[in-house]
Amino acid sequence: MTIDRGQLTNNNDSIKSNPNGTGNVNEPGDSPISPPISLSKIIFPQKIPPKQVTYVKREKTSYSGKILLSLLVAALGLWLHISWLGLTGSVLACCFSLIEIIPSIQQWIRHFLTPQERQTVISFIGLVVAMALLGNYLGIYGRVSFWLTQFKYDEFGSWAEWVGALGQIMIAMLAVYVAWQQYVISKDLTIQQNRITQQQTIDAYFQGVSDLILGPDGLLEDWPQERVIAEGRTAAILTSVDSAGKAKILRFLSRSRLLTPLKRDSHLGRPILDGTGGYAEDRAYGTRVISLGVVLAGANFQEEDLRWTDLTEANMVRANLSRCDLVKANFSLTILSEANLSGADLKGTRLFYGSVENATPRSRTMPPNYETGEHTGAVVERVNLTGVRRISEEQRYYFCSWGGEWTRASIPGGCEGIPNKLGR
Q: What's the pTM value of the predicted model, to 2 decimals?
């Protein structure tokens, strides 16, 4: 390290001119002058080493020799018939053994038992001891002793037979417990295996549908036979998976635009681009790649995620949609009769097109008018809306108007001032 002599001279002069270290020379009456700062401390400041903590692991004290010596004293007292010597040796051996064993027991408990399990074990022991003490204070032991003195053992056999019978009962109970545990483990393994198999089945379905769509003559070219195969695969898999699998399949089909009616060329059947990088929708005259039909009737979607799914024109009569996330889902022209929507999130859920004043449920004979909203709404008769969340005023008006008395009675907040159009 090279030090500039000029810098040393300047530093030394500054120290002499400012002995108090504040840049001002002390005047008479000021505070006492602080001692001058050493030049070596400025040039070579002393570095304070970080505090180091050293953990020294103490060796475990062994009591094996003391235990053997105590046992030897106890044996000697027994051999010489000296009772106090034998008793002393026995007590010492017992104490030293406990001192040796207790840490190992504590370590075993900390390793194999969680804090909650330790609390449970202590509570169980406390319960047993407390019941034993209560039995003593309540006189139960005296009554049992009196009953045993009056008991005729000859009529019921010896105590050995009773103990044998009790042992057999305990063995039977242990066998039942082991069988139950094996059943629980087997059930958990079966459920896990079923989930893996179901996921593999869903992945194979996704791959098959993707191959049909992305092939050179794929479904988006509107080949009827391939569309029929895709609908058949969809109907088969939706009836063979659980609610989570159904929701996953519907999200895939909806986000892939396979459930949306697309605008197509009337001669070639090819979908028409919308100019923004996607395919143009045509709700009135478009063709869906996959039509759900009645495959979702009575389906269970409880607590599942159906956000942004296109379920238009699907038959979901008596479907269980309780506590589902239906944000931005499209239920226009969907049959929701007797469906359960209790606790569902209806933020942005579409029930119709057009204005709420002109919107009416779908009709078997009349085509839907997507401009005015006539015959574009969902069928909502006898729908359970108990506890629905984030319902808008337009949704409330539509449910109250076309849901009937049963639906109106389940809407949170009631339908005061809203006419019952279904009752006309």
A: 0.59
